[in-house]
């Protein structure tokens, strides 16, 4: 299977500051990749490079195209949501749908109207009359209704209430199963998206510190619920993190120590957010 996105030795400098450091990654078609990292890690910078919005050093190809050189061509097959939804304030929702229909050959107006009908947004509203969350809902409705090969979502649900966030991810996954799409998504609310991801990429200080598919991740790391009596034995095996819950300890280990650890308690699959914390700490030590 050929990769939809290929980055080799990708670097991005803002003046003296290096925001992306030798990024090497390939993303296959049909993947749902969570790009996870702390504030200022370089996630948006990487997505901007993918969208052709930021020139970088190194090799980058998206759908076989250099995004910065042939942005217009690429935009036919990519849809994106930035963390700040930018829509003109004066435009009416109805006009926005007219406009999108004219400029985007793959836009399904009916689908957008169905999404919008589930919100408080009315076709007669002007963008300036909408709350922040409603603008985000409108933006999502439009983007989700464009049949694109690659969907790039930068904090897509920022400012949205929990009901809409859940609905958005349910729609996203339904849509994913009906169309062959590739999705790259960033969010700080990792627990809300981990069930839809096929792969995770952890990024820190401009560098990729982990790139793994979900199955390997759960093979490589595991958690054990350790009773107080076995605390010292388990600590001797050097867990990456330890959380105390009532009179037990939840310890996260690398798979190498599995044989010794699993006799000490119940083994469970760690959440992506717990793994993220552990790997960030491990990397810092
Ligand atoms: N236009 C710019 N000029 C100078 N520095 C920038 C610019 N854009 C981003 N940076 C710097 O690059 C680094 C990465 O920023 P980026 O926005 O990619 O982070 P992020 O991982 O998306 O963070 P967050 O989760 O906070 O949105 C930060 O240190 C930021 O200050």
Q: Give the assembly state of these chains.
A: single chain
Number of helical runs?
A: 11
Number of domains: 2
**DSSP strand count:** 13
- Please identify, by name, the CATH architecture of the largest domain: 3-Layer(aba) Sandwich
Give, in spatial order, the strands making up the sheet with the most strands. Answer: 5-6-7-3-8-9
Unreliable residue stretches: none
Order of helices and strands: EEEHEHEHHHEHEHEEHEHEEHEH
Bound molecules: adenosine-5'-triphosphate
What share of residues are in beta strands? 25-35%
Q: Rg to the nearest angstrom? A: 21 Å
Helix share of residues?
25-40%
Q: Helix/strand/pairing class, anyone?
A: alpha/beta
Task: Describe, in plain words, how this protein is organized in 3D.
The chain is of the alpha/beta class and 285 residues long. It has two domains: 3-205, 3-Layer(aba) Sandwich (Rossmann fold); 216-284, Alpha-Beta Plaits. The chain has helices at residues 43-50, 71-75, 93-103, 109-117, 132-144, 162-178, 190-193, 214-220, 231-236, 258-261, 272-284; strands spanning 3-14, 17-28, 32-36, 57-62, 78-81, 150-154, 182-186, 199-204, 207-213, 221-227, 241-245, 248-254, 265-268. The strands form three sheets. The protein has a six-stranded mixed β-sheet, with helices on both faces. A four-stranded antiparallel β-sheet has the order 11-12-10-13. The protein has a three-stranded antiparallel β-sheet with strand order 2-1-4, covered by helices on one side. A hairpin with a 2-residue loop joins β1 and β2 (17-28). It is globular and about 65 Å long. The two termini are 37 Å apart. The structure holds adenosine-5'-triphosphate.
């Amino acid at each position: 299977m050929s990769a939809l996105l290929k980055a080799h030795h990708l670097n991005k400098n803002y003046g003296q500051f290096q925001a992306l450091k030798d990024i090497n990654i390939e993303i296959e078609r049909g993947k749902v990749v969570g790009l996870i990292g702390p504030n200022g890690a370089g996630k948006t910078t990487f997505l901007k490079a993918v969208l052709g919005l930021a020139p970088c050093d190194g090799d980058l190809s998206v759908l076989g195209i250099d995004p910065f050189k042939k942005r217009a061509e690429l935009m036919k097959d990519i849809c994106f949501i930035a963390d700040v939804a930018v829509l003109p304030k004066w435009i009416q929702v109805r006009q926005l749908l007219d406009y999108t229909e004219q400029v985007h050959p793959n836009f399904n107006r009916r689908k957008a109207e169905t999404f919008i009908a589930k919100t408080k947004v009315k076709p007669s509203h002007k963008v300036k009359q909408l709350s922040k969350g409603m603008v985000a809902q409108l933006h999502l409705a439009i983007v989700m209704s464009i049949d694109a090969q690659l969907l790039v979502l930068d904090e897509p649900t920022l400012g949205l209430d929990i009901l809409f966030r859940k609905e958005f991810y349910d729609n996203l996954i339904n849509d994913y199963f009906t169309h062959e799409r590739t999705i790259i998504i960033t969010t700080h609310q990792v627990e809300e998206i981990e069930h839809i991801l096929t792969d995770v990429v952890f990024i820190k200080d401009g560098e990729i510190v982990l790139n793994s598919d979900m199955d390997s991740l759960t093979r490589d790391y595991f958690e054990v619920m350790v009773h107080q009596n076995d605390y010292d034995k388990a600590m001797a095996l050097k867990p990456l993190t330890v959380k105390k819950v009532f009179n037990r300890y939840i310890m996260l280990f690398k798979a190498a120590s599995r044989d010794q650890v699993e006799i000490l308690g119940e083994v469970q699959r760690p959440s992506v957010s717990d793994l993220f914390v552990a790997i960030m700490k491990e990397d810092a030590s």
